[in-house]
């Protein structure tokens, strides 16, 4: 499809962001950590167990820093030139777009609808697109909203294309007034479209909570007497684009699906939903590329699909090796600093090795790779090698791997051989699609094992990602400004703790499943440095243990009157280490336009999430490995963007885009997540108070100013907890948590002093 006539400028370029200065800083920090370890080894005899515990913790931190240095060594991403696409490519390839939703209460249908509308309106020929929405909540309300939205889409899509609107999610677009003179054609169209959108939101709102319309129409019959965890498969063609010429007024296909659910059948959460999406779309449109977004991740840049195609279609850079194109995840609410910084420095770093990790949303996959192909299976021209043809295309192996459906097998063969898909009536596939949503369809097939989205981890994204890299494929990262997709992120508090725990649990699960980099490092086609990069994320949960110890050590030493840190000039190692690390991370934030405040919040939240939330992931995975319980996926709550933010304070470019930025206050509830943090603060405060009144044990070595400073630093990092002790309501730590923490802290003090 793409032409490779060389005089034409490229569709994309790989940009390297490597910096010798930053490498030197990374190595300096590594060197300081190693010298600290050396000092500990040389002075081990004179000291007590504290010395050994500190040494073990610092060994972990050094190892983590080594992994980070490896990741940050050669960052890279891609710059694309979508404006060059038309002169280079005669016919753009089809793309199937997948949206997953699971709960109409935690994921309000109006958010889903906005995401779908933004997808339908992207800058791409409408006859090449199809949008599939998977609803694990089996909600008639979601289906109703989609039906209404597809009617509104007939106004919205032409409007966006006619006026080249940038943000194509109506709830965001209509937050600003139009910049045209009143009475102009544009402003009339704008008013009319806005009115229609308001009608749509009103209808969805009216339908929420009342169900009389459910009985009124036959179309909703399938939803009668269903529960979200107990119902048959539902597949509905919401809108079929029969125009098929790709003009500006056309609206792409919209299909609603909800796979069968039974209470005693395990559904593999989002991964299971994705695999059903792959199958249904395989039958109906079988596009070679598949875009996947979470239901809150609307398109913020109309050219997203074209940008991704620049990478896939650029032949000269062995595009056949690129399995997927990932965009970073950005958010319209909450404190975006942490994730932006993480994605920019670490994300780009991994992108520079074998390619970014698939992050679950904002990613374009190639269908063939999802069907299990390895890089070696392809010849130079990108078609299947003769060995691979024999291996993959034998009828009985196809049925064994993909399930017992002739149509499915045929669509897989077509996809593997890159045959163009003939236009057909979507409704013709309804019956087969229904069958493929059956609970037992995947039984004894390779779905979730080698094919599609992989099971056995609640972070199905990273699990699937390492599977792809292990088969030798690369991936590409595009980092556009403004962000390509924007979604919703829970604010600091219980909701975010649940999410962080799920992530840490899912990642740790992979360390112990068959994708583990510990096994694959030497025998699979994944690059060694890429394996190390995965190891860094998979070990998030484990980091909670040394961090928890390290937050308690200064207090213990102060109370026990023993030395934690080196004495004399050697204390310089610690001071330089902390100093350089602070300046370095601060620079990372300010370089991206974030404030000192957001840097501090991130450092503080970093310690809180590790010690309070990730800690539980260790427990989750132990229980899972012992076969006592399964890990669960609790969907995060999504909120609509507020109508308009009134805050006039100075914010960075990225921060301005986030209307819901709250006061940054931390919320608490009675859950166990907040016990470790409260305990840490109490212990450190008690140690400082004890030191002031001269309450100290008989430990050797003697503690001093360094240990006291350590305690102060910990309290500063856990400041939200200190504040929470004096607040009421949702911003206050509940009395039950406080009293448990106080009891544990008292025990800790007694043991430290008396020991
Ligand atoms: O049983 C389920 C559970 C979840 N989902 C969908 O999965 C998506 C992600 O869920 P969310 O609660 O938003 O999780 P996050 O932690 O915000 O999501 C990130 O982390 C997840 C796990 O790593 C990935 O699946 C996501 O793509 C990634 O954006 C949403 O669209 C859900 O509707 C389902 O379809 N079925
Ligand atoms: Mn989410």
UniProtKB/TrEMBL annotation:
One of its GO terms (biological process) is cell wall organization. GO terms for molecular function: cellulose synthase (UDP-forming) activity. It is found in: Golgi apparatus membrane. It is a multi-pass membrane protein. One of its GO terms (cellular component) is Golgi membrane. Gene3D superfamilies: Spore Coat Polysaccharide Biosynthesis Protein SpsA, Chain A. InterPro entries: Cellulose_synth, Nucleotide-diphossugar_trans. Mn(2+) binds at residues 270, 294. The active site is at residues 136, 461. UDP-alpha-D-glucose binds at residues 107, 136. Its main location: Golgi. The chain crosses the membrane at residues 20-42, 49-68, 568-587, 614-635, 672-695, 701-721, 733-753. Keywords: Cell wall biogenesis/degradation, Glycosyltransferase, Golgi apparatus, Membrane, Transferase, Transmembrane, Transmembrane helix. Thought to be a Golgi-localized beta-glycan synthase that polymerize the backbones of noncellulosic polysaccharides (hemicelluloses) of plant cell wall. Belongs to the glycosyltransferase 2 family. Plant cellulose synthase-like B subfamily. This is Cellulose synthase. It comes from Arabidopsis thaliana x Arabidopsis arenosa. The lineage of its organism: Eukaryota, Viridiplantae, Streptophyta, Embryophyta, Tracheophyta.
